[in-house]
Here is the input.
Amino acid sequence: MATARPGWSRRAQYGLFFSFLALLAGILIGLILLAISVLAPDRFATIRGAALDVTGPVSSSFHSVTATVEGVFTGAGNYWDAANQNGELRRERDAMQRQIMQARAIMQENRQLKAVLQLREHEEKAIAVGRLVGSSLSSTRRFAILSAGKNDGVQIGMPVRAPEGLVGRVIDVGSFASRVLLASDRANIVPARLLRGGIPVISQGRGDGTIDVRPLEVGRNPFKRGDIIITSGTGGLYPPLVPIARIIKLDDDGAIAVPIADPSNISFAVVEPPYEPTAQADTP
Amino acid sequence: MVRAALATKRRIGQGPRPLAAFVPMMSVIVASLLAALPIITTSGWFPDFGFLALVSWRLLRSDPWPAWWAAPMGLVNDLFTGLPLGLSVTLWSATMLVLDLVDRRTQWRDYWIEWVLAAVLVTIDEWLQWRIAAISGARVPFMAAVPPIAISIFVFPLSAWIVSRLDRWRLGR
Here is the structure.
């Protein structure tokens, strides 16, 4: 279609014209698909899941290669000053053991108090464990690909966490892989509270790997640098007491925080059932 | 290509590769599949590889594929990169149409004009992604989309170079 008229051939002219019509049809179909996927995002769940199954295993297999290469280099680095590290680890272990003893005592006390109050204890059970094997590379949305899918029992809407802290929630699911909406995505709003003092706050991603935290009640800025934000369990989707982020900078009425479970650093992620089973239906 | 036709040395026994007509399309799909690389980024500043490949091919030649193929290729890109379904379908088809119009209007073209065209198209692409994200509940300041736009613009010459090498390879030149 470089020139307006390809010559005197009727066939070529018609070919050009029909190609133009097909192009217009393509734009039209695209607009319709776009409208549907903006207005009813769950409509294409099946086909998106199938696409995940195509790319997920590829990412997983490459991931083991990159992980091995990285492991070799960090492993070599660790041998470099093994003696120093050894002494440091020993000191840390002793300190840990003292803390563990304290924590055990506190847990026991806690259990007794809860029994007195007759609180129902939620048992935490993992549905599936997977690795984060990829992420959205080129948009302001923050997704990650998890190497566990429908076959492992993962369903859309389930919360995902790492041993370190909260990762996000599942939004697309294929047979072997699923897509996770990270806590640093703008659309992921997590009810949370400040670990120090328990002030209720709202955590919302900023799309660039950091998280916005705002207090629920307007007033004095309650944050300090280094504060830890944990989930509150409000809303029933995310389990309570999971660390989300650490505050690095204050602004006018809130603060900016970085996720504690850095998606590029965590070794594996655990998919858990929604804290309150009814909450899953509300979050597409 | 005109310059290749003017070249004096024609080696005998060299012609287009088998399936040469499908090489451009395949290369765009491979570029879309780069989104499956096991890279976990917290900022999302990587360029939109599929779109860059599409624009590079279309700026190099007016006929890398029948224009309407842009729609199915866009669908593949949407599925693999996790963009809202239909965004690339629309944008890629519209890009083909716009570049056809540009071809008609411009009397001559050089590398700078192609780079400017690519820069404008990439900016529109990122702006549209940002806008759609805002509509579907992820409104961030537009400044967050500026670094990826700049990176994409500077990656375009590289993409154009790879595509031109690929074009010469597939035509056996």
In short: Chain A touches chain B through 63 residues (CB under 8 Å). The two ends of chain A are 44 Å apart (CA to CA).
